[in-house]
Specification:
heterotetramer; A: about 325 residues; alpha/beta; Rossmann fold; seven-stranded mixed beta sheet; five-stranded mixed beta sheet; 14 strands; B: about 350 residues; about 45% helix; globular; binds thiamine diphosphate; binds magnesium ion
């Protein structure tokens, strides 16, 4: 096992797949010569050359449209949308074209592509460069959605996404790019649609994603140590497909559910999971379902303000202490 | 054989476009025309339930490209795509069946009139949101270029489409990457009900923008199948050889309203009549006769096509409504619709 | 009271506001000379002239961008996006610009505009012209979202939206355009953020929106008559602001919640309301929360298929009978 | 007064741009320069936390428009908007304070460097997603036209922005509606790290597309404040009188990287040096001296501006972090953030 940053795991995952399969190509803005604005794709141009690793104009619709057309006709493109907020300028291609083509054509068209994008807050970039928008994608039938929390998952899920015959949107959390972690040596391929139970407790199940996984783990430690509340922590990893089996089992066992989301309040994946539990696991519940989210506001930019909006370890501890006992 | 006819046959032979191709252009235009007319009849009989956007009057463009394209080339078109799909060889019963929401439809009733697709024939889809398919076509062209297959992607769209952002992005992108894609604007003078001239800064919505992408300005008579055929061949050949994209504006006119809901009252008086005189099929029939092709040859084709349309209609009518199982099929590559385990 | 169609109530609402306030202008594709593809704005050009009622090129970003710029500088534009599916081509302007400008500028910028759009299925238009996407909008902090179910509400909510100083997105349900109903004579202005209890029952609260309100009412009649299940039916009307007071009160009273949505399964407003109830009304619940939605698929086009996807009266009756007793 | 100086003064007077305006152009360029440099220093001191995109080297454009605009005209600019916001008269402490995330910031810390706005001064916002503000500026122009106020909206953006869809939509829309909006492309040869020439079909990404909107091709030396000033005045006057939009491409260069994270290693050797010789402020200072304005006048201005920047820095540094209450303020017009009752 080598220790890699989350950032380097991106390049490692892409490189592994490009080396394996000639059909894999990579395109985006400033991704080739500059190696990406987050330096997550440094070295790919040198390794695979300008025919396969391509810089694009600021034309997100063209980028994703081209990726789609190429995917329909035999390539397996990986396209980068620099910040996930920018999905809004090419949302039609994602939500109306890529996601729907297989269904509309009754299975004639296949769109095996991967869209990678940098998601989330923490860099003081303000409301147009800090959003967590995985819920935008989860809402749309026909596109798979993953959001890794650890370097190993980054590499493994990128590989799984490239090999999948459906379009996959990968949300890389900006605030995690410098996180280090063990990544298996050699070929590493994960599986889409599997949540992971990172610790098991008996009082409550915390379901989290990306950065929030780390905060949930830290909060669970404090809750256990200082307050005698023992929590399961589940890293959802994949929103579509959603591993409801794992989530339902843990909630049934602990009797309580807390979701921790970085996205704004309304209609996030936390609400979806909460409503599934409130339907299918109702009789096992020992108390209200708690959703911890960023407030339903655009994100402020100043460090003091930004830090106070995204769910913190302290806030997770506090809300669980107050509401679960 | 009397010499007059022989001379005329020579005349046909000496033309840059040979007799067989000419007859196929005629036949195909006719097929598109009669099939669209049939679609209109079926709508009046309430057998077609959703919307439909007919290409009546615009057949020369779809037919000319259909004949000029290689079987492995790719077509990307719009909701007004019945003709373009048929022109690649999709079955008429598959098209009419889809319009009627039947099992035999090209998409098993899942897509409908606005999304006709026949991947096996290179008809890579009909796209119903303005502009989106231009970059998609560029992407197909990229894959051809990448694999060195000399395939070409041809992308059809209307005059109104030139004002949306995706048009601009796709054009620039394709030129910078030198992709083998041909963008074909069918300028029929209107978006839905609004004259294109009232919402566009230039006279030729596509051709007058070619320069913005370092492309040649090309305007063709879209009601003249030969003119379109020649242009199509020229620029597709160039694209195959690595010469990059072209943007071709074909001037034409739709004889009916924008969609089945539209009586087209917004047209100035006499405009339709003027264009009916330039009906592409009428023009082409006269030209063939002028070139010495005998009436009977054309009549035979006409009868044959009409019979095919009739048969296709019966096939489609006889087809069952799609099974409800289809609802939960083909969201994903595994054939299903499950978003959870 | 006059009887108007839902369609005519649109023009009536716009006309009322244009007559009252010179700053109100109206723009969109084919809306002026043609009166809109749904004929919902016929007559406005004649009444208010080409300076105030304007046809636009197929440039949704320009249309909403222009509406935003005009709103920032003193006008009160009403912009039409022909089909709600097309919001995807201008989503950046909606989600990143219009919604966030006031907050990002700390209140300096005001964007008092209205976006009207035709939403939902039933016309056999297929996956790109039939979506219910009110959940796309509800997710975005900074934009108000309403969806009327009755002609009177159409007029009254359009008026309220025009007078509101925040951006408001109005989803008009395509399948309701020909519905007739009483509309108050004279000036009629409704209030944003108010749900309406259309009938009260004691066994269960059904929360619905737009077309689903009518189906929920029909189902409630059948449930009462044939199965002895007595239901409250709430027309949410306004997703943002959300009238949680009304919903919480009725659910607390009946002990059960059923949401009926036309949108696809994941992350809709039904999930949001379910999760609010599962948190704040948990102890009053007598059983699982039921969400009835369209399956999580793109919409099929053929009549037989389309009819089988959108929640029907029969399906609502069946699910409630099976699950609530 | 010795006659040589007198002659030179006459020379100034005879110029089309008067002495006062020239001095103001000088002063304003200097203000933008020194304030940006200060922002860079504060970043090095870790007092600016988020990103920031400096306009060092591009000051002539913002300054020339700032001087040429009427106080009630509107500016729309990008994340690279410090200069444009200051050029409309926003306070330096408000700008630096916002960059530092302080209470005194123009946006109370809510927006940050990329969203500077000062509505009272006509600075209608800095937009951080490429392309979006072009149609927004068109909308402001529409409102001016509608109300007959003869205000003009000026919209600044980079070369890279010309390849996104919204550019195309906004240009066509503005021309069709004949709106009083001036689109100003600051062509600094790069998007973030990628040379614009490598991703654009034409040499002049804005000017070579003017024809696509029936507009004149205009390319100006963006490092020459006088040239920009003359062009700005000419086209703003025309727009005020109902002559419609203009698209102006100003050639320039940024001296620093794209943003604070960028060391700009991608530049070919010698390129920066070549452009530093054409530093707009250096050029302008020499020109003023050549026109007979005495050194002391310029030195006075320089000292004064430096003092203002110092004072603004102190004010901003002394300002508290914003109150956390602000988090829940101004989502809605009622001042709050409630999405439910
Ligand atoms: C983004 C988007 N906006 C609007 C529409 C509605 N619409 C469908 S067809 C059409 C007119 C298209 O005109 P044109 O491109 O000239 O094609 P034509 O129909 O004339 O073939 C419009 C506005 C749409 N489908 N997508
Ligand atoms: C839609 C969108 N895509 C990408 C970006 C990321 N981005 C920010 S600035 C920039 C380069 C812009 O280049 P240009 O328009 O030349 O302006 P400059 O920075 O040179 O002033 C890019 C790609 C963005 N903000 N928005
Ligand atoms: Mg047209
Ligand atoms: Mg630039």
């Amino acid at each position: 096992m080598a220790e890699l940053t989350y950032r380097d795991a991106v390049a490692a995952g892409i490189a592994q797949e490009m080396a394996r399969d000639e059909r894999v190509v990579f395109l985006g803005e400033d991704v080739a010569h500059a190696g990406g604005v987050f330096k997550a794709t440094v070295g790919l141009l040198d390794k695979f050359g300008p025919k396969r690793v391509r810089d694009c104009p600021i034309s997100e619709q063209a980028i994703l449209g081209a990726a789609m057309g190429a995917a329909m006709t035999g390539l397996r493109p990986i396209a980068e949308i620099m910040f996930s907020d920018f999905l809004a300028v090419c949302w039609d291609i994602v939500a109306n074209e890529i996601a729907k083509s297989r269904y509309m054509t009754n299975g004639q068209v296949s769109v095996p592509l991967v869209i990678r994008t940098a998601n989330g807050a923490g860099s003081r970039f303000g409301a147009q460069h800090s959003q967590s928008v995985e819920n935008w994608a989860m809402m749309i039938p026909g596109i798979k959605v993953v959001a890794p929390a650890f370097p190993a998952d980054v590499k493994g899920l990128i590989a799984a996404a490239v090999r999948d015959d459906d379009p996959v949107l990968i949300f890389e959390q900006k605030s995690l790019y410098s996180l280090k972690g063990e990544v298996p040596d050699g070929e590493h391929v994960d599986e889409l649609g599997r949540a992971r139970v990172l610790r098991q407790g008996k009082d409550c199940t915390i379901v989290a994603l990306a950065l929030m996984v780390h905060r949930a783990l830290a909060a669970a430690d404090i809750l256990e140590r200082d307050h005698g509340i023992s929590c399961t922590v589940i890293d959802v990893r994949s929103l579509v497909p959603l591993d409801t089996v794992t989530i339902l089992a843990e909630v049934a066992r602990t009797g309580r559910l807390v979701t921790v989301e970085e996205n704004p309040r309304l209609c996030g994946w936390g609400a979806e999971i909460a409503s599934i539990i409130a339907d299918e696991c109702f009789w096992e519940l020992d108390g209200p379902i708690i959703r911890i989210t960023t407030p339903h506001i655009p994100l402020p930019s100043a460090d003091a303000l930004e830090d106070a909006t995204i769910p913190s370890v302290e806030r997770i501890v506090r809300e669980i202490r107050e509401k679960i006992d | 054989m009397d010499t007059k006819v022989k001379n005329k046959k020579d005349a046909v032979a000496k033309e840059d476009i040979g007799r067989d191709i000419r007859l196929e252009l005629f036949r195909l235009q006719l097929e598109l025309r009669l099939c669209e007319k049939r679609a209109y009849d079926l709508f009046l009989q309430n057998l077609i339930k959703g919307t439909s956007h007919l290409s009546l009057g615009q057949e020369a463009i779809a037919a000319a490209f259909g004949v000029a394209m290689r079987p492995d080339d790719w077509t990307f078109c719009t909701y007004r795509g019945h003709a373009h799909t048929l022109a690649r060889g999709a079955s008429m019963s598959g098209v009419l069946g889809e319009l009627m929401g039947r099992e035999c439809g090209l998409l098993g009733g899942k897509g409908g009139s606005m999304h006709l697709t026949d991947v096996a024939k290179g008809a890579m889809g009909s796209y119903a949101i303005i502009g989106a398919h231009l970059p998609v076509a560029a992407g197909a062209a990229w894959s051809a270029q990448y694999r060195g297959t000399e395939q070409v992607a041809v992308c059809f769209f209307g005059d109104g489409t030139t004002n949306i952002g995706a048009f601009h992005e796709a054009l620039n992108f394709s030129v910078v990457w030198k992709l083998p894609v041909i963008f074909v604007c069918e300028n029929n003078l209107y978006m839905e009900y609004t004259p294109i001239s009232s919402v566009t800064a230039v006279e030729h919505p596509a051709a007058d923008r070619a320069g913005a992408y370092n492309l040649e300005k090309i305007v063709v008579d879209g009601n003249d199948a030969d003119a379109v055929y020649r242009t199509a061949t020229k620029y597709m050949d160039r694209a195959r050889k690595g010469g990059g994209p072209a943007l071709i504006e074909c001037m034409t006119y739709r004889h009916s309203g924008h969609s089945r809901a539209d009586p087209a009252k917004y047209r100035p008086e006499g405009e339709l009549e003027k264009w009916l005189e330039r009906d592409p099929i009428k023009i082409y029939r006269e030209r063939l006769l002028g070139l010495g092709i005998v009436e009977a040859t054309l009549t035979d084709i006409e009868n044959e096509v009409m019979q095919q349309v009739n048969e296709a209609t019966e096939t489609a009518k006889a087809s069952a409504p799609p099974s409800l199982d289809g609802i939960h099929q083909h969201v994903w590559a595994d054939g299903g619709a499950a978003w959870r385990n």
